[in-house]
Design goal:
By secondary structure, the protein is mainly α. Among the domains are: 1-127; 137-266; 768-829, Ribosomal Protein S8, Chain: A, domain 1.
């Protein structure tokens, strides 16, 4: 009934059976069950034990049963206890650790047979010391067990267990897995261990067995090859930091001295990382201990003597370390460390290292700018690092072609920012920095100087602007920029850069410097050789930027306006020359002419009172020489995009009206399509200029009976908006009446066109020979420019589909290069021309009737208005007149 299989599968019911016997004083039955379970546990193998492992409560219930049986002399059996102790070795380590708290509590209890409980707990702990501790999942259990050993005060078991941890650590290291922590490394970094009494005898055992072993291992690692050390340097730093914390907590001076000697063998990157970890640990209960201060000083001393030129050292680590010195306010250590950075920089310069040195990276760090550089510590930083860098840069600018020229600007901007931030509560710059900075600025070109401004704006600009010496530094850079522009008249400033620099000057309150810069920029632009459109873009941006333009003083604005007028004048001259001089033979593009006119409009919108800087008539020679098509596109585009400006400003209106009058006197009608015709009529209606309407009427009448003329006539007849405008506008009606009268008069003398093979309006793009044939009197032709019959057939189909202004029949034939098309004219086009002539005649008759009707309506309107005026009663006579 109680077989070994049943016990492993149903342990809890079997235990309950034993307790049942005990409750009814059946000691023999309870003893029998206990012996059967013990016998089963002696013969159980590890696989069966693992099945029981998840059932922690069952195992503990059996252990409680044993303690109950041992408490009674009639049921006591020491062999039963030994069998259970052997069962411990078959369980997993994690299961034993889960049982540990209860076992420890039982060993400390005052129950009967407590000695038996203590012996069981001892055997339990002894079983734990013999386990393989290389499993990655047992760290917490191991730490809990060590804490238990400390609580129970068992030195022998503690030493044995710690030795087992060391053996597991060595075995793991021999497999060369440096990327992951071993159990030993996990244990020494545990916060629970730091809370133990490490200055006690048990604590000394822990330090001796674990920490001293780890220190020995780390010493071996530093003696290994450089590559291996670099690969595991981060882990080494972490382990060393953990050991150092424990050594400080234990208070053993000999051990701390051993650590201090070890520092001199470490890489600079590890020392930096270690020092920062020590500062983080400063908030622990050992913060104010003398041991910690001593170890911190030893670390700093090692750092001041180590080689900082190593490529492994991280800029952020060094910057964090400098910030740490500022926080701890350790003047001597800061000076010593900064001096070491300077030595590393000099060594890198001598080796001609192409990348940024550690010094350059430190002074360009944003974190440094957030330090209190006006303090005593800040002055040490400025003296040691910044002044050293400025001295080196002075030599670089003196050299004719230095290889670090590109990085010099970055370093200069960094030094300028730090010089501004380090200033005391005064606008005066420290002469130790101001003089070398001024010297370097004198050697820079315009592009480099404006780059310095850009850096100042983009990096911590709000913080810098709050510094008292910020305006002084801006003045220093600004004067250098103006001087450089004077020396090199060809130097120009991009639009965005000029606006940003002016914004800085205005914001800093430098009126005279602002005027000087504007005056010099205007002088350089007026005589400069860059394209007029680029100059327009520059000044348009300047005038159209309210934050800059509205704050400028009138004198600066007048300088700008005069320069703009001069640029417009030169631009007009250059465009006129490109049209009139045969050697150039290049027409200006519509966009360029538009930009020039828009430049003029911009000046007019911002002209100062009684200070006109440009006269619109200067455009007249250019407009007169433009081709008709270009001028038409120009007036239409200006009407569409600049109507608001033209209406508002008299000079702009005069210019546009004169240009429109000029255009309507030209032979523009043949170029007009329906869309252009509608836009031109809208332009005339908006402009309301009598001379333009008159010229328009004459040009359209003169072009009659061309096809383009009928585009306008049909708009008068069929477009409701235009018809309404003829009623509303007397100028429009007068022009309409002139056109209809003249066309009607010419139409009376026109005869029906005689038959002719001439198809004069035929157009065949890319086939000029065919087009010439269609416009001639020749009746047929053979076209042979084909590579195959398929191409000939394709051309025949195309010619038939596109025959809008001509009519032909096409017959493809032949093969290969002998393919051809026989093209024969037909009478369809002549018939279409007759039909069109008939339609046009009918439309003209309708226009005459429209003209008569509108004329009569206008006459009737005038009469009604006159009658309304005549019925107004005469004024009453006074009494003297009545008498």
């Amino acid at each position: 009934m109680i077989s070994p299989d049943r016990i492993t599968q149903q342990l809890m019911p079997v235990i309950k059976l034993a307790h049942f016997f005990l409750n009814f004083d059946c000691l023999e039955g309870a003893n029998f069950v206990g012996d059967r379970i013990s016998s089963a546990f002696i013969n159980i193998d590890k696989s069966q034990a693992h099945k029981l492992a998840p059932q922690h409560t069952h195992i503990w219930a059996y252990l409680e049963l044993i303690f109950v049986l041992e408490a009674n002399p009639k049921t006591s059996n020491q062999e039963r206890m030994k069998s259970f102790t052997s069962f411990f070795s078959k369980l997993e380590f994690s299961v034993l650790c889960d049982l540990l708290p209860k076992m420890e509590a039982q060993s400390n209890s005052r129950h009967e047979n407590s000695e038996s409980r203590k012996n069981t707990f001892y055997d339990f702990c002894k079983a734990l010391t013999d386990y393989d501790l290389r499993s990655p999942c047992i760290k917490k259990a191991v730490v809990d067990l060590i804490c238990s050993y400390f609580r129970t005060g068992n030195a022998e078991l503690l030493r044995s267990f710690l030795s087992n941890i060391v053996r597991a650590h060595v075995a793991t290291k021999e497999k060369e897995t440096p990327s992951s922590k071993t159990l030993l490394e996990e244990v020494i970094s545990s916060p629970e261990i730091l809370n133990l009494d490490l200055s006690s005898d048990l604590g000394e055992i822990f330090m001796e067995v674990l920490v001293d072993s780890q220190l020995t291992t780390m010493k071996k690692e530093t003696s290994a090859s450089a590559n291996r050390l670099d690969d595991g340097s981060s882990l080494l730093s972490t382990n060393l930091s953990s050991c150092l914390r424990l050594a400080i907590a234990s208070g053993n001076q000999g051990r701390m001295k051993s650590f201090a000697l070890f520092f001199s063998k470490l890489e600079s990157s590890i020392l930096c990382d270690l020092l920062l970890k020590m500062e983080v640990q400063a908030n622990s209960r050992h913060e104010n201990s003398e041991s910690r201060k001593k170890m911190f000083n030893e670390l700093c001393k090692a750092l001041s003597e180590c080689d900082l030129s190593s490529p492994c050292i991280k800029k952020k680590t060094v910057v964090d370390l400098i910030c740490s010195y500022f926080r701890t306010r350790n003047v001597e250590l800061l000076r010593s460390f900064l001096s070491n950075i300077v030595r590393a920089h000099v060594a890198s310069e001598e080796n001609e290292t192409p990348s940024m040195t550690l010094l350059e990276e430190v002074i360009s760090s944003p974190e440094i700018l957030n330090l209190d550089l006006s303090s005593d510590l800040g002055e040490i930083f400025m003296e040691t690092l910044v002044d050293s860098r400025l001295t080196i840069m002075e030599r670089e600018t003196w050299a004719s072609a230095h290889r670090y020229r590109s990085s010099l600007l970055t370093n200069l901007s960094s030094c300028i920012r730090l010089a501004i931030a380090s200033g005391k509560n005064t606008r005066i710059l420290d002469a130790r920095r101001a003089m070398p900075i001024a010297y370097i600025l004198e050697k820079l070109n315009v592009h480099q100087l404006t780059g310095t401004f850009t850096d100042l704006l983009e990096n911590n600009s709000k913080r810098l602007k709050a510094c008292p010496s910020y305006p002084t530094m801006i003045s220093l850079i600004g004067n250098s920029l103006v001087s450089e522009l004077k020396k090199n008249a060809r130097d120009i400033l991009p639009r965005r850069t000029l606006l940003r620099v002016l914004d800085i000057f205005i914001e800093s309150g430098f009126a005279s410097l602002t005027q000087s810069l504007i005056k010099q920029v205007c002088a350089n632009e007026e005589s400069g050789t860059r394209r007029h459109q680029e100059k327009y873009s520059l000044f348009a941006g300047l005038i159209s930027t309210p934050p800059v333009w509205e704050i400028l003083d009138p004198k600066s604005k007048l300088i700008i306006m005069k320069t703009c007028g001069s640029i417009i004048q030169n631009w007009i001259i250059d465009m006129s020359r490109s049209i009139t001089e045969p050697a150039i033979e290049k027409l200006p593009e519509l966009k360029e002419i538009l930009n020039c006119i828009q430049f003029f409009f911009l000046v007019e919108r911002n002209v100062l009172q009684n200070e006109r800087t440009f006269d619109a008539p200067a455009f007249e020679p250019l407009m007169a020489n433009l081709p008709v098509s270009l001028l038409m596109n120009l007036v239409l585009h200006l009407h569409q995009s600049e109507a608001g400006t033209i209406e508002k400003f008299p000079a702009c209106l005069n210019f546009y009206r004169d240009t429109s009058r000029l255009f309507f006197t030209m032979k523009f009608v043949p170029l007009v399509k329906r869309e252009e015709a509608i836009r031109l009529l809208n332009l005339l209606l908006w402009l309301e200029d009598e001379k333009s309407w008159q010229s328009f009427a004459i040009s359209v009448s003169t072009a009659f009976p061309s096809t383009s003329t009928y585009i306008f006539l049909r708009l008068f007849l069929k477009n409701p908006v235009i018809k309404q405008a003829l009623t509303d506008s007397s100028l429009a009606f007068a022009a309409f009446a002139t056109i209809v009268d003249n066309c009607s008069l010419k139409s009376a003398s026109l005869k029906e066109p005689p038959f002719s093979w001439h198809q004069s309006e035929a157009v065949v793009p890319n086939h000029l020979e065919v087009q010439a044939f269609l416009r001639s009197s020749q009746e047929s032709m053979t076209y042979t420019k084909f590579t195959g019959i398929a191409e000939a057939r394709h051309f025949a189909a195309y010619l038939m589909e596109e025959s809008t202004n001509f009519s032909v029949s096409v017959s493809p034939s032949g093969a290969g290069k002998n393919s051809r098309c026989i093209i024969t004219k037909t009478r369809k086009q002549n018939e279409r021309d007759k039909d069109e002539s008939f339609i046009r005649k009918g439309e003209l008759e309708l226009l005459v009737k429209l003209r008569e009707r509108l004329g009569q309506e206008k006459l009737k309107t005038k009469r009604v208005t006159a009658d309304e005026v005549s019925v107004i009663p005469p004024p009453k006579r006074c009494k003297r007149e009545k008498m």
